[in-house]
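Shipment paperwork, digital attachment
Item: protein structure file
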Amino acid sequence: MDKCIQFLVPLLLTIPACTSIQEQSGKNIVRKTDLPNIVLIVSDDQGYHDLGCYGATDVKTPTLDRIAAEGARLTNFYVTCSFCTPSRASLLTGRYPQRNGTYELFRNNRVDDGYLYPPYEYSVSPERILGTDQREVLISEILQEAGYINGCFGKWDMGQLRRFLPLQQGFDRYFGFVNTGIDYFTHERYGVPSMYDDNEPTIKDNGTYCTNLFEREAIKFVREYINKPFFLYLPFNAPHSGSNQHKEDPRYPVQATQEYLDIYPEAFEKGEYHRQGIMAAITDMDNAIRNIMQVIEDAGKDDNTLVIFLSDNGAGGSVANYPLRGGKGNFFEGGIRVPCIVKWPARIPGDQVIDNFLSSLEIFPTILSVTGIDKPDDLILDGFNMMPVLSGENKDLAREEMYWEAREKMAARIGNWKLVYNIDEKGFYDLSKDISEENDLTDVLPERFAEIKRKFSAWQVEMAKAEPRGPFKDF
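Attachment content:
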């Protein structure tokens, strides 16, 4: 893409300070014939405890459990926001929401009141016209320039107008929906059809459960490009509740197929219909991942395929989050600490549990490292290459600090110290002893508390000085 051609120069620059305890010098040289395939999978509102490999006993996730057993399970892993759009934009840009300009949802706030938008009104509404600043460089664009074939299947969430869509952002193929949520079966939001095939709206699959559609299109993509280096981005909307306008539908608010609902009859018998739907949606997604990965394995490409799975933010309603406090929308651990699994048989030993402080900001520079692509000249990233800790070369590599700010809420983590302001709930915690954030140390350690506040203020100043990005910032 034009906006990143200027950056692809053979320079090796240091990622900004204040990210890691120990950076790695030097760079792996990767021949084009050795380029790994990359599969980046994102679930939606999945709880920290809603995977078998993270301790769940009621929900079935055999595929993700196997991927974890064959790779690394990260237990101290964070995303940049406790709701979807900023988190997903950070994942693809490698930058804090405050730096890339996407620190709020692109949406109309009438999901729950049954309002149906007339076509023109929707076409000029904020949900339709807002998008991530086009000056941002996405990992897909850099990979495409390096020769990767890129496919995206699922929830795009970074803008609906053509200029914001995946094919204009470094992807060669796209099938999915372009806003923050849809009905899983009708593919509508506010009564507006929202599924896209490449750049064009489509209603041809209306009635088909969307997870199955994303699986279908991803399998077609992998089969077509299995002998070329490919980047497969799978941003599911499962197990997020559907934006279901049809409240008379017996599946409301459950958004799952009967085949998978039947796996959880006990929840149904207890009247826990929403929980039943959540578990069914997770297991359906897990099965879709299995079928996609099977194509890669059957082609003998598993050994050289880097697979990364994470949730976009913490748990929504009826989702298991133990032992974390809070959930989606706030900055307690339950809103921002998420499950993350990484597998790459050629480079990452299996059966690992890694408790190092890491984040989704590390994924962009890690992909640059494993593909041998130098970090673009003028691009400021907020993370670092985490391959050394995944491979076992540097088991001490970890993030030193991280900051969050959204909707008048904020948090900061420095080492194991965590400061949280959730408007009406706030506190200061030692996560090494109190992962559930139960013991407020604000009055016990006032000097340490003040130090963390100063660091957060300094970060705010740094973000304010960053090159302005829209759509929300005034510049």
